[in-house]
Design a protein that fits this description.
Keywords: DNA-binding. It contains 5 helices and 2 strands; from the N terminus they run ααββααα. By secondary structure, the protein is mainly alpha-helical. The chain is flat, with a radius of gyration of 20 Å.
């Protein structure tokens, strides 16, 4: 598929897809005319990259992580290093702290909403 189709199917802009390519997160074959061509696998790859960005990882960390993720056939990758596992565990801990903070903030808002709702018709 061409870059426009990948952008449409993944919900990611063409500009972002080109950026992913420069960062080593996505690879494209080139037609004789120089146009990018992606396989079906690229949709899942882009969705994974988006999820990792949303988790707060940077492109360098994502580039290290992608080869370690399970392949589409479900088989484990053997590319993980001990250091990468330690770094990813640290990222997970950071995310867990953020979740705890968000839950605390939501609880405070719930309390304020409940208090403010008394006497409001």
């Amino acid at each position: 598929m061409r870059i426009g189709e990948l952008a449409r199917r993944s919900g990611v802009s063409e500009r972002s897809l080109r950026y992913y390519e420069t960062q080593g997160l996505l690879n494209a074959e080139r037609t004789p005319g120089g146009q990018r061509q992606y396989g079906e696998w690229a949709v899942d790859r882009v969705i994974r990259v988006q999820a990792l960005y949303a988790a707060g990882l940077n492109s360098k960390k994502i580039a290290q992580l992608l080869p370690c993720m399970r392949d589409t056939d479900g088989g484990p990758s053997e590319a993980a290093t001990e250091q990468l596992v330690v770094e990813l565990a640290s990222e997970r801990d950071r995310i867990n702290r953020l979740i705890t903070d968000l839950i605390r903030s939501r609880d405070v808002l719930d309390e304020v909403i409940t208090t403010a709702s008394v006497g409001v018709s």
